[in-house]
Amino acid sequence: MSLGTILLIIVVLMLIGVFPAWPHSRSWGYGPSGGVGLILFILIILLLLGRL
Question: What angle do CA 9, 11, 16 make, to 5 degrees?
Fold first, then answer.
């Protein structure tokens, strides 16, 4: 597995963990999941361009 694939898996798990439906993150709102989603989007673009 390449480093990019490992990073992508970690970020996807982080995105699932901060989703506001879970009891521990219900009061956080959509801020953390939006931030992690942005990081995920950037990583996907970098993987597609071959820069990672």
Answer: 95
Q: Does this model's pTM top 0.70?
A: no
Q: Are residues 4 and 52 in contact, defined by beta-carbon separation less than 8 angstroms?
A: yes
Where helices occur in the chain by DSSP H, the ranges are: 3-17, 31-49
Integer angstrom CA distances of residue 23 from 19, 20, 26, 27, 47: 10, 8, 5, 8, 32
* pLDDT single digits (tens) 21-51: 667 666 776 677 677 778 778 878 887 888 7
